[in-house]
Design brief:
The chain has no helices and three strands. By secondary structure, the protein is mainly beta. A hairpin with a 2-residue loop joins strand 2 and strand 3.
Length: 72
């Protein structure tokens, strides 16, 4: 039985202003890649490492507080 496992995946987050009507700056979208490592410990699977890579974002940065600090 394996003692470790890896998950690699992507994530697309779509954010919209409450008043967004399909045009303009009322959105902010982000793409991310993730790698999670798991290991067996005490008879259960545990997360041992998480790596996140921000790929590309677009739209109005004011809709996502975490994006205010870094210019892309």
């Amino acid at each position: 039985m394996p003692q470790s496992a890896v998950y690699v995946g992507g994530l697309l987050i779509l954010r919209f202003d409450r008043d967004f009507e399909g045009e303009g700056e009322g959105f902010y979208h982000s793409c991310e890649a993730h790698q999670l490592l798991f290991g067996k410990a005490e008879g259960a699977w545990k997360t041992t490492s998480i790596t996140q890579e921000a790929l590309r974002s677009g739209g109005n940065r004011q809709l996502h507080e975490g994006s205010w600090e870094t210019e892309v």
